[in-house]
Design brief:
Strand content: 25-35%
Radius of gyration: 18 Å
CATH class: Alpha Beta
Number of strands: 9
């Protein structure tokens, strides 16, 4: 991967305008999470040291976002929340507004350009996150991981899928496997990590599906079925994620660097 460079926006603020110029594999519905609409622009302006862009020549090939928050504050006590991705965003900006000192870095997204997946880029972006968290003095990086093999099995319970392993003992899921190879440990399932509501017309626009029958709807790219209620005129998607903890001691960081070129096929951390 000669010539690739990973920079934070704190180091190269001019890259902020290029964060979303690359084509990625996020399903359309996932871009309509209300917290993402509200808070993503603020990550760029308020936490630029935790936003990274990978470039190769003049091409943007990957991006990553993370937010600092106080996981060990009173009432949180180091327990990773069942609300996962949404709750981390809420905690991070609440802590920032109130001047609460963060102790943990929460991964929000790692995306790799379409056509560049399978080259180890996701592992390198994860390594950049780990290095930045360690440099900031945090003891942990935590990630509400969106397993990238799960859309093929939307009806499988995440509590089963998350702990499924191969013969070598590594996770069955490719993105979870990248995290574990980098030193991460699967902690728990976040059953309510992201919630997306929409009218039936909105879901039809996002997916191209009819959304005219009550009950579960299998949507391409979704980790679980979308629940459709035609008589009430709306559908709701509740996405489960998998919490992974990355301890950031020197030994773990060495393992992360060694495994950052593993040919990962992941696109997403959520």
């Amino acid at each position: 991967m000669t010539g690739m460079q990973i920079d934070s926006l704190a180091r190269r603020p001019e890259l902020a305008s290029r964060l979303h110029e690359m084509e990625d594999s996020w399903p359309e519905f996932s871009t309509h999470d209300p917290l993402a609409w509200l808070l993503y622009p603020r990550i760029v302006t308020e936490f630029p040291e935790f936003v990274w862009v990978a470039t190769e020549g003049d091409e943007v090939v990957a991006r990553a976002y993370a937010v600092p928050f106080a996981l060990h504050a009173a009432g949180r006590d180091g327990v990773l929340p069942g609300q996962g991705w949404d709750r981390v965003l809420m905690w991070a900006f609440s802590d920032h507004r109130r001047g609460v000192r963060p102790d943990t870095l929460g991964a929000i997204e790692v995306s790799v350009a379409t056509g560049r997946q399978g080259e180890g880029l996701s592992g390198r972006m994860l390594a950049a996150m780990r290095g930045a968290a360690r440099a900031a003095g945090f003891a942990e990086l935590v990630a509400p991981v969106r397993p990238n093999g799960k859309p093929a099995e939307p009806d499988a319970p995440m509590a089963e899928y998350a702990y499924r392993t191969r013969e070598d003992g590594l996770p069955y899921d490719p993105w979870l496997r990248v995290h574990v190879r980098a030193g991460g440990v699967i902690d728990s399932v976040a059953p309510l990590s992201m919630t997306i509501n929409g009218t039936l017309d909105e879901w039809r626009e996002w997916t191209g599906l009819p959304f005219d029958e009550p009950g579960p709807v299998h949507v391409p790219g979704a980790l679980a079925p979308v629940h459709c209620e035609p008589e009430r005129g709306h559908a709701v998607y509740v996405e489960p994620n998998v919490w992974v903890r990355h301890g950031l001691d020197a030994t773990a960081e060495g393992a992360s660097a060694q495994n950052s070129e593993t040919g990962a096929v992941a696109e997403e951390v959520r």
